[in-house]
Write the structure tokens for this entry.
Amino acid sequence: MRAIQYFGSRRTEEQNPELLYHYFDIITDLDPRFVNAYRYGGTFLAEPAPFGLGKFDMGVGLLEKGRKNNPGNFRLPLEEAFLYYFYPKDYEKAAELFREAAETPGLSKSRQASVKGMAAAALAKGGNRDLSKEIWQIIYETSPSEGRRSFALRNLQEIETGEMEDELTAALLEYQKQYGKLPGSVKELAAAGYVEGGIPEAPIGGEFVIAPEIDSVRNTELASRKLKEALAFLNSKAARFRKIYGEYPRDLNELKDFIKTETTGVFPDHPMGQEYIYNPESGKIESKWKY
């Protein structure tokens, strides 16, 4: 009850990961077979904001405890495989956990084949978009958390929108090859007959626009989401740099080197192919492009 009250009484940014882990640790000590406590607590701790606390090690630690206490439950290694697949992108570890889930006694032959296929795809193709869609679909259909189902649906819609971007970008490049230049807009691209069936409507909303710096078509809503995530990440790393060294990075190259050598993250590209704007006095990273 304390864990439930704690979740309901605080916003995500106000929650204490150590205390929440402690609550779930006690719950699962009292009832080692309470599978949904491991699943809910583990994924909430591990997944990034806005639907989680971004404490990956704590989250997988809780799921590993669940696997030890419930060796016959396939959902626990499956949940942990999803986390390794999407966040540190450790496809080898994800494949190992997919295989463990597939070998659970009593699993139906069809589900066993499906999970074995995930293991093979994780090893062979890494961040494969079709596999990502399949995983998010399973999470959406089976998760005990309404927030996580919403997160899964959001990711499914974003993947579908990304597929639309790719199709429109392919048409854009065909136009460029034919005319030696980019069209003035996506509408012009469609009017020239390069977009069969007209410009699609993205499931996340927004509109499709041309990003001339990278010769690509981008969805404004998806690009806006990615930009917000990128800026939040970069500004947090600049603040961490200052906490360690007493001053902000001199430029973005120094910040990039810091992220590469001192953290587990990767310096994110601007979703529209533009340059970030950096103020070394305030340590703030911004973008000229906004939508």
Observations:
- The longest helix spans residues 146-179.
- The two ends are 42 Å apart (CA to CA).
- The chain has a mean pLDDT of 90.
- The longest strand covers residues 208-211.
